[in-house]
Every structure is written in structure tokens, then in C-alpha cells.
Amino acid sequence: MDFGVAIPFVEHLGFALMLFEDGRSELVYDPLPEHLNSFAVTHGGALMTLLDVTMAVAARSVQKDMGAVTIEMKTSFMQPARGPLTARGHLMHRTATMAFTEGTVFDAQGKACAHATGTFKFVRRLATGPKSVNALQTIATD
Question: How far is CA 107 from CA 30, 68, 122, in A?
Fold first, then answer.
């Protein structure tokens, strides 16, 4: 499945989009050795990126022509994340300009490893094509 836009960092990490509809998202991620920390488990920064993307995709799933930029994110780490991971996101509420989301990362046994809530701002994309890396207008937060 396609994210609808090019996201070089996401492509670099190897996230794969499985679900992108009706306020829901699901991504899968098989961390590489260079994505691990000194305890040989997935680095917290990689998990936070996975959660950030998962929640943004859930927000965008109800209006795919818009971008969603992170305003705020809170993450809780519950247990080490080992092996192939699945992240699921949910759009809890939205206004015309904001989305309120949550996401959880699960390990191969279905155990929750990390959970986050996030607030995103919807932004319009420029008409430069669906895969343009520079597709977002200048972002104003006022």
C-alpha cells in the first residue's frame, strides 16, 4: 500500500503501510540491526518515529489530500520492542484544522510495547503531484 506521498525517512526505516482508511492505520516494521539500542532492542527514537507516522496516517486517512504535521506527542514505553513490530493508529477526534490521535506498537506476540497520543495540524499540499517530497506549503502555526 502507498502512503500517497514520498516520505524519505520512512522509506529509509522500511515502514510498510497495511491500513489507511476510516480514521485507522496500521504499519509494519522489521527493525534492522542499526535500528537497535545498546540492549539489542528497537531504539526508542525508531519507535517514536513509527508511532508519529502511524498517528499522522490515521489522521490523514479521513482526508487523504491533506498533510498532517505533528504539534504535540506523548509516548510511553511499556516493554522492550523486539523483532517484527506492528503499529496501529486511531483518529479519536478532529476539527477542521486539528487531529487528535493515539497509536500503539505491538511485538510479534501481540504485546503492547509503546503507546502514544498525538495532536496534528492539517495542512494543504501544493499541486505538484502526489509523490512530491516538497509537497507541503510553508507551515504557519498561527
Answer: 10, 26, 30
Structural domain spans, the chain: 8-124
Query: For residues 81 and 104, is the Cβ–Cβ distance under 8 A?
Result: no
21-49 confidence digits (pLDDT tens): 999 999 999 999 999 999 999 999 999 99
Answer whether residue 130 shows pLDDT above 60: no
pTM confidence score: 0.88
Candidates 120, 114, 117; CA nearest to 136 is 120
Give the Cα separation of 112 and 115 in Å (integer).
Answer: 8
Secondary-structure class of domain 8-124 per CATH: alpha beta
Classify strands 66-77 and 16-21 as parallel, antiparallel or unpaired: unpaired
Nearest to 102 by CA among 52, 29, 33, 136: 52
